Structure formats: C-alpha cells, structure tokens
Amino acid sequence: MVFQWFHSTAYMMDDEVGSLVEKLKPQFVTKWLKTVCDVRFDVMVMCLLPKPMEFARVGGYWDKSCSTVTQLKEGLNRILCLIPYNVISQSVWECIMPEWLEAIRTEVPDNQLKEFREVLRWVSSLM
C-alpha cells in the first residue's frame, strides 16, 4: 500500500499540502522502505512484481476490476514514481525488470504495445 501511496501522491497539486507530503517522503518513508528492503528483500521484490502474491495486491488498480494491460501500465507507473526517491535499488531493479518485460511481452496484445512505448524507452535508458 505504501507503493500505491507514492504513486497517488506523485500527482498532487503543488500547494501547501502537496509540499508537506513531498517532504515526508524522503524524511521518513523512503528511509523506512530502505530498511524493509534490507531486512526483507524478498518481500520488497515480491510486492513490486507484475503479478505479486495475493497479500501484496492492495490498493489502487488491485481494488477495482480492470484489464491485465491496465494493471501492467499502472504497476509500471507505480515503480517509476519510486525511482526519484531511490527506493528501487539496483538489486531490486535486476530482480523485477525481467519479470516486467516478460509480462509485457506475453500479456500485452501487439495493438496495445504502443501504450508502453514511452515507458519502455525510459526503462531501457536505465538498463
């Protein structure tokens, strides 16, 4: 749910509340997430996979009925919202990205791949 919170707050208005939330992220939340990653790397990775275990399917697109393509797009966007805060370490990235690319390759119809083009271009520049 914390990952979903990062995604939801990424699009907040740049006002007093948005500014306060943005200060909370690096001050408290990212430190906690990095500790979680150090202590339970496996759980962190599991929660960031395109098809996580049932316990990790909380909030956002998991709470509504939507297509697999929508789930994949929303999940990738959620990961991209974590990157500016250095929540995704290189070792986490190396574990999750092959799964994401395979899910896109096998589950996104050819006529919908263009919806992933920009994100994939950005992802490939990071690899």
From TrEMBL:
It comes from Mus musculus (Mouse). It holds the Pfam family UNC-79. It comes from the Eukaryota. This is Uncharacterized protein.
